[in-house]
Amino acid sequence: MSNNKSSLGQHYRPEVHGHRGCRGLRPENTLPAFLHAVTLGVDVIELDVVISQDHQVVVSHEPWLAANLGRSPIGEIIDPKQEQQFNLYQLPYSLIKSCPVGEWPHPNFPEQQPVPSCRPLLREVLHQVSTLSQQLGHTVGFSVEIKSSPVGDDIFHPRPMQFVDLVVSELQTAGAIGSTTLLSFDARILQAARQSYPDLALCLLIEDHLPAVTMLFLDLGFEPEVLGPDFQLLSASLVQSIRNSYPNLRLVPWTVNTQAELMTVLKWQPNGITTDYPDRLLALLDVYN
């Protein structure tokens, strides 16, 4: 066995989570991104959901038409200063679907190939990803992030319980409950989900500041199945401390993109790694294994 293999552990292989599909390679949160990620061989598709005016669960990171992703309903370029006026919670899905995305390269992702598309419904993603993964003989799970905040209630999204109910209804209809983890930075979302859907796996997302290990879930009120911190908040010693305190907790840091970052995080041996470039992580794992 090579030194590279032994440095990671002989049998260690983290789950590969494709962030917004594969944002570094295809337009984020689009069917082309999700299907390309499945073809690459990811284990989990990570995506974000918002709610339309007609209560459809739409796959989008922002609850408005992001100016850097596509055009307005009448085909115009969107002024970044005005983008929040295109509030998806105030637009029917038929109008949202008509707004093109992915027509031009994303300035922050030079390897991203433009593919004209639209913001899909969650049910479409669940169906098409599951169908393709079955054809390829590779099981793919879902990490569904609910974007929510107290200041956005009834403005950009419904209140937590209704938001959770709408999303879980889609998961139940698709038969995807058992293969899905629900993610949120908003403790209220996870609390509502745990109360009404105790069998649904939950992940607390953390950015900016990581509380003391013993206080990680004080505000949440319970230990979720997964912790998803910004990887930059972690260190090898901190990861070990989290493992010692919460031996059943799964750790899936985000968003790890460069080869140097991936190499560092791999040495911590998390349960999964969320990345915009699943091809890079998969290539590294091929070397190690």
Indicate the multimeric state: single chain
- CATH C-level label: Alpha Beta
Low-confidence stretches: 1-6
Number of domains: 1
Rounded to an integer, what's the Rg over CA atoms?
19 Å
Question: Could you tell me how far the N terminus lies from the C terminus, measured between alpha carbons in angstroms?
Answer: 10 Å
CATH architecture: Alpha-Beta Barrel
Return the structural class: alpha/beta
Query: Helix proportion of residues, in percent?
Result: 25-40%
Give the integer mean of the pLDDT values.
Answer: 96
CATH homologous superfamily, by name? Phosphatidylinositol (PI) phosphodiesterase
Summarize the structure.
With 289 residues, the protein is of the alpha/beta class. It is 31% helix and 15% strand. Helix 5 (160-173) links the parallel strand 4 (141-146) and strand 5.
Question: What are the salient characteristics of this protein?
Answer:
9 helices; alpha/beta; TIM Barrel
